[in-house]
Amino acid sequence: MDRLKPRSPIDLVVEPDTFRGVNDIRTSTVFDIVGKKVVIAQTEPRLSISHGRKGLIISFLTMEKGIQHRYGFQAKIINVIEDYQMASSGIQPAILLEQISLPKPYNLRMYYRISPPLNSGFQISVSGQPGNIIDISLGGTLLGMTISQELEGQFEVGQMVKIALNIDENKFDLEAEIKRLIFPENRPIIMIACEFQKRTRLLEQILERKLLYLQRQSCT
Q1: Segments forming the whole domain that contains residue 172
Q2: Are 105 and 127 within one domain?
Q3: Cα–Cα distance measured from residue 179 to residue 9, given in angstroms and rounded to the nearest whole number
Q4: Which H helix or E strand runs over 208?
Q5: Residue 18, CB-side half-sphere exposure with 13 Å CA sphere
């Protein structure tokens, strides 16, 4: 864990899930590192043992040749400490975590989802069937499709499907795994949550640029 040091600021992705409706990303500071054990400051809102059931991602920035890069690794909560002894500032509430994966380049926007407006430049189809994007992130999309005779029994959770995604003038053919199927009551549509597989760097660059643009447009 040579890239992460005591006193480093970090971002915690709590119970990461590409398709959660609300992103839970909290800030903290590293108190100490011993081997694969990491002690961090208690967050606000507070973390508990139950938050670690699905794991966490510790994300942090580091300088490499004068350029900032973001890395992340998976961790699990070992203990909640109410009276961690700090050498310089007395007792502080803390969280003890254990690293369970190696650090690798990480993009926090993987878990930020955007609901694109009409005429936003997105077009999508699944297995040749056109759909409407409800929300989208770097990791995947939730889309709606009108139920038709052709769609009866065509999709199931865990299935790999072919997706054609257009972002303005850029066209991408990719695979995705169906993570969830939703059938809203009294509506003739099916909602499909898909996780993109084997994303290319070009797709991530163009999609991230588009998501940033739409996010800024929504704030103006």
Answers
A1: 122-218
A2: no
A3: 33
A4: helix 201-218
A5: 20
Compute φ and ψ for 214, nearest 5 degrees: -65, -35
Tens digit of each residue's pLDDT (9 = 90 or more) over 4-62? 888 899 988 886 665 554 457 789 999 999 999 999 999 988 988 887 666 788 999 88
pTM, entire model: 0.61
Is there a contact between 92 and 41 (Cβ–Cβ < 8 Å)? Answer: yes
Can you give the CATH number for the domain in which 99 is found? 2.30.110.10
Q: Enter the tokens of residue 165.
A: 């995604």
- Provide the number of structural domains found in the chain: 2
Closest to 117 measured CA to CA, from 138, 140, 134: 134
**Model confidence pLDDT, tens digit, residues 94-150:** 999 999 999 988 877 666 778 898 889 999 999 988 999 999 988 889 999 887 656
Is residue 28 a part of any domain in this protein?
Answer: yes
Residue 102 and residue 49 share a domain: yes
Instruction: Tell me how far apart the terminal alpha carbons of the chain are, to the nearest angstrom.
Output: 40
